[in-house]
Amino acid sequence: MTHNHLIFNRIRVRSHRDHAAATFAHSDFLFRECAVRLADRLPDINRTFPMALDLGAHNGLLAEYMRGLNGIEHVVQADVSRTMITQAKGLRVVADEEFLPFAPASFDLVLSVFSLHWINDLPGTLIQINRILKPGGLLMMMVPGGETLKELRQSFEQAELAETGGMSPRISPFVDARAGGSLLQRAGFTLPVADSEIVTIHYENPMKLLDDLHACGETNALMTSHKGFFAAWGFVWGD
């Protein structure tokens, strides 16, 4: 993949997560909510998954809810950040989601919560995941949907337009459910199911939201991001 086709600066993604390792547990409520929802779906599947991979494991919170479900015996936890993954318990490995270091047919189950939205070549990563799954293996993943942070996106656009007369990317692009289903089909997954759930979080002011994003390592990692900020915020905050 050439530099011109890169959306995200993966070095910056790793750096943000490294710095967030010390604060992640204090602002991980959304990650935990999504981890619980993902884990709650496993018992509805009448199958066992002895060998599982948590891809983009952060500090290992998803594994806390996976253990003991569906005959899971081993959970390999992989994350791009060495600083973050060292906080996880059990089997751990430092791995870039864009270059998976696992042998074909290694896992019965791959799960991922809020990590694959930072991938430049998501179809390519899904193809790799399909390859490391055993025949009949299962992928379950959660990523932010297309409407995520729409109020913040609009506020940045209006503030920058008022201050500079133009707009630059400040919020990552997200994949909606329909596009996600198509990507799974292109990657060779059979019987793909893509749906969406709305999780509404209310903040009393935008700075608290920005603090939480920073604490979780979820700040801007776009290749075209700018370091400058606005002298005047000019936020228009949704209800």
In short:
With 239 residues, this protein is α/β, with parallel strands linked by helices. The chain contains 8 helices and 5 strands, in the order ααβαβαββαβααα. It has one domain: Rossmann fold, CATH 3.40.50.
What letter string, H or E per element, gives the SSE order? HHEHEHEEHEHHH
Spans of at least 5 consecutive residues whose pLDDT stays below 50 are 229-239
Q: Which percent range describes the beta-strand content? A: 5-15%
Name given to the CATH architecture? 3-Layer(aba) Sandwich
What's the CATH class, please?
Alpha Beta
SSE class: alpha/beta
CATH superfamily: Vaccinia Virus protein VP39
Please list the strands of the largest sheet in the order they lie side by side: 3-2-1-4-5
Q: Percent helix among the residues? A: 25-40%
Rg over alpha carbons: 18 Å
Count every helix, treating DSSP H or I runs of 4 or more residues as helices.
8
Task: Give the overall pLDDT as a whole number.
Answer: 82
Give an overview in words.
The protein is α/β, with parallel strands linked by helices and 239 residues long. The protein has a five-stranded parallel beta sheet with strand order 3-2-1-4-5. The relative contact order is 0.17. It has helices at residues 10-20, 29-41, 61-66, 82-85, 122-132, 150-164, 177-186, 206-215; strands at 51-55, 74-79, 91-94, 107-113, 133-142. The protein starts with 9 loop residues before the first helix and ends in a 24-residue tail after the last helix. The protein contains eight helices and five strands.
